[in-house]
Amino acid sequence: MYTPDREQDLRWMRRALDLAALCPPAAGAYSVGAVIVGDDGTELAAGYSREADPREHAEEAALGKLSAGDPRLAGATIYSTLEPCSQRSAARTPCAQRILDAGIPRVVLAWREPSLFVDDCVGYEQLVEAGVVVVELRELAAAARDVNGHLGGLD
């Protein structure tokens, strides 16, 4: 499993924040960036919300660039600027479940999902309960929130 030091985690999360800034703003959706890093410390895939589809989430976009069952995922870390979702309003698999299905053992996030669209996102808890190592980089939460200024009411 890829277990970088804190500086490497911060560097990859800043890459995810740069991706989040590429998201087309949407009134009913967060702007999120995600990067999947292999156990050798190289980027395997990256994505951002609404990259190819108006309902696409960042983790979904990044995972969609890799083959299902890619053996590199077993030692990978996924960096997401927002807590992976635990439920979707559309008939799509929530991102926390996608991460579990992919077998990614480590997740790094910057910001827990506020109760703007979902009253109680439990992506963090679902991942931890399934044995995934989850790291929260609270010092970058404000930057992740700032990318979502188009939503208002996030203070």
Q: How would you characterize the overall build of this protein?
A:
With 155 residues, this protein is of the alpha/beta class. It has helices at 6-20, 58-63, 95-102, 123-129, 141-146; strands spanning 33-37, 43-48, 77-82, 106-111, 133-136. A five-stranded mixed beta sheet has the order 2-1-3-4-5, with helices on both faces. Helix 4 links the parallel strand 4 and strand 5 (133-136). Helix 3 runs parallel beside helix 4. The longest helix is centred in the N-terminal third of the chain and has 15 residues, at 6-20. It is globular, with a radius of gyration of 14 Å. The termini are far apart. The model has no long low-confidence stretch (mean pLDDT 90).
Properties at a glance:
alpha/beta, five-stranded mixed sheet
Concise overview:
The protein is α/β, with parallel strands linked by helices.
Strand % is 15-25%
What is the H/E order?
HEEHEHEHEH
Main β-sheet, spatial strand arrangement: 2-1-3-4-5
Number of helices, where a helix is a run of at least 4 consecutive DSSP H or I residues: 5
SS-derived structural category: alpha/beta
Shape: globular
Poorly predicted sequence stretches spanning 5 or more consecutive residues:
none
Distance between the termini: 35 Å
Mean pLDDT: 90
Helix content: 25-40%
Total beta strands: 5
Radius of gyration: 14 Å
Main sheet summary: 5 strands, mixed
